[in-house]
């Protein structure tokens, strides 16, 4: 089959070539891939660190070509949304049925390819905050793919949404249209006033965002777009003066079992127009070098979608 292979000798570090056909385990279905969305972590880190010839890719949509032998998951011919550790940038991939959601008939599978990492991470992070109806939720790095889904889902969940971005003047209108009540440049101004944080940046931004938490608040650390570490100043973790019971929670989507219902629910919301996938770039996989350059150059706010085949 054809696939995008790691090849650091070419622009973008990826080229179309031949790869072995995947062999599904009994609990996996074989998917004929239609589209995949790119994530910053894949093209920034995995392309650099993976062996030559590796087939990468977390997000993919397509159609079930062979159902799982153990009887779990969707039937042959079902349109699906899938998540996995690799294999999405190929004509076919084998996927655990725990990580396969079903898509509505006739749905735009390109748009739904944005769901697994971006939408799934946003939904699970917000679940980790607990009930958000009427609570103040801060989203850092709100202009990225996960951030834009998080803003929309937090608003749907009844939160008062604070969206932080490095350029609020440029991105303010877009983020307010997605549901943000306030668009700000940072989190320092909310000292002790926020009930929950979904942090998509890491580094000093995470430290500042932790300081914004009110008593009983939770920060979920999801993204790490900066290479800087998190260095808390003396006293930052003291629990007096209204800072009792604040938490930092780490997060890894690949460790979240039973994602299938989440992916199905998110796919339905996108198909119904209740969630905007915020696609900023879309094209064939023969343009992968262009897509990677756009993403790594931070010229893409939202999601990039590759049409496979």
What this model shows, in words?
This protein has 309 residues and is of the alpha/beta class. α3 packs across α7 (260-271). The chain has helices spanning 40-49, 109-112, 115-129, 145-156, 168-178, 204-211, 260-271, 288-296, and strands at 2-6, 14-18, 28-38, 59-66, 79-83, 92-96, 100-102, 136-140, 160-164, 182-184, 194-199, 213-221, 247-250, 279-284, 303-307. The termini are close together. Strands 3, 4, 5, 6, 7, 14 and 15 form a seven-stranded mixed beta sheet that branches. It is built from eight helices and 15 strands. InterPro entries: ADH-like_N, ER, GroES-like_sf, NAD(P)-bd_dom_sf, Zn-ADH-like_protein. This is Zn-dependent oxidoreductase, NADPH:quinone reductase. It comes from Actinoalloteichus fjordicus. GO terms for molecular function: oxidoreductase activity. Pfam families: ADH_N (PF08240), ADH_zinc_N_2 (PF13602).
């Amino acid at each position: 089959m054809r696939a995008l292979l790691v090849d650091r000798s070419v622009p973008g570090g990826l080229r179309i070539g031949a790869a072995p056909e995947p062999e599904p385990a009994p609990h996996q279905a074989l998917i004929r891939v239609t589209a995949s969305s790119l994530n910053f972590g894949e093209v920034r880190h995995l392309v650099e660190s993976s062996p030559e010839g590796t087939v990468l890719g977390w997000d993919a949509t397509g159609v079930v070509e062979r159902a799982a032998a153990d009887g779990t998951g969707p039937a042959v011919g079902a349109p699906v949304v899938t998540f996995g550790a690799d294999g999405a940038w190929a004509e076919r991939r084998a996927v655990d049925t725990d990580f396969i959601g079903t898509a509505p008939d006739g749905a735009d599978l390109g748009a739904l390819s944005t769901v697994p990492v971006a939408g799934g991470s946003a939904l699970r992070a917000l679940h980790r905050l607990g009930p958000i109806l009427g609570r103040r939720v801060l989203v850092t790095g709100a202009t990225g793919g996960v951030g834009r889904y998080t803003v929309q889902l937090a608003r749907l969940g009844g939160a008062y949404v604070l969206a932080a971005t490095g350029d609020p003047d440029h991105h303010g209108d877009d983020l307010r249209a997605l549901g943000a009540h306030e668009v700000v440049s940072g989190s320092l101004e909310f000292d002790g006033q926020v009930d929950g944080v979904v942090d998509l940046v890491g580094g000093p931004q995470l430290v500042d965002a932790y300081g914004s938490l009110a008593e009983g608040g939770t920060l979920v650390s999801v993204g790490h777009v900066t290479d800087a570490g998190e260095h808390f100043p003396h006293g930052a973790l003291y629990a007096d003066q209204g800072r009792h019971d604040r938490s930092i929670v780490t997060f890894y989507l690949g460790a979240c079992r039973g994602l299938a219902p989440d992916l199905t629910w998110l796919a339905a919301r996108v198909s119904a127009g209740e969630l905007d996938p915020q696609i900023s770039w879309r094209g064939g996989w023969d343009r992968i070098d262009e897509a990677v350059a756009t993403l790594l150059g931070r010229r893409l706010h939202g999601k990039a979608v590759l049409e496979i085949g």
